[in-house]
Amino acid sequence: MKNFGNMPNMPNMPMMNPMMSNMPMMNPMMPNMPMMNPMMQNPMMQNPMMMMNNPMANQNTYYQNMLKMQQIMNSQNKNLNQSEKRLARIKKEFELCSLDSDLTQIGCSFGLVNQEDYSVWKVSIIGPQNTPYQTGVFTINVFFPEDYPKKGAEFRFVNKIYHLNVDFKHKDSIGHICLSSLNEWATTGKVSGKPCYGVKQALFDIFCLFYNQGVDSPYDDDIAAEYRDRRNEFDAKAREWTQKYAK
Q1: Which of the four pLDDT bands, split at 50, 70 and 90, describes residue 128?
Q2: Is the Cα dihedral 100, 45, 182, 166 positive or negative?
Q3: Exposure winner among 16, 104, 115, 198, fewest CB in 10 A?
Q4: Which residues are catalytic?
């Protein structure tokens, strides 16, 4: 960016970019009260990809809590069978995810499909700004298998979404998400190169798909071609589906 130097009529005052300054701006309606720069209130607003580039800012704390929780549960629940231990772990993970500030920042909220069954969660995610999915409320069901955590959970969109990596055509796999990390975790209970992979990281991976669609692993080649060659048409359909199915 070209530097034009100081304003000629204010030789001793450097020219500041009002959107980058950390100093409060004055509110013209209330001159005695500084008006905070909206770009400085939340770093995510400055760069919406920032959290996704480093999504697990608090992952050590989160998984340390998980480890402590598991150790406590192992000592307290010695008389429980495997099914009861599994359920106790899923309940605790539900509690931790519901209170997690990182997940709250990307618009996640948590519930149960059946209030008496913690094996199936209902997670809502708000479509991020500056995408065709913005302001949409997308529901994802999270299914925990009987042998969890030896195998990871499965994630499926409930409402229709026009997306390269979400199946909306095949009856037996409606809502299935084509993402290598999710598939590997659901199959093996772990993800290569990501030793702390769990529900939290999986939800961040899904959130990233709103921004970066996997052209190399689409469910439909025709839609992939539309995304690559006629992006405006793809975005228009994605916005239409968001308004129709994600309100």
Answers
A1: very high
A2: positive
A3: 115
A4: 178
- The domain in which residue 212 lies consists of 59-64+82-245
The total of structural domains in the chain comes to: 1
Residue type for 27, please? N
Query: CB–CB of 227/237 below 8 Å?
Result: no
Q: Which residues lie across from 122 on neighbouring strands?
A: 111, 141
Assess if residue 31 is contained within a domain: no
36 occurs within a structural domain = no
- Whether 101 maps to a domain, the answer reads yes
Which CATH number covers residue 208? Answer: 3.10.110.10
pLDDT value at 206 more than 60: yes
What integer is the mean pLDDT of 102-117? 94
Q: Tell me whether residue 19 is in a domain.
A: no
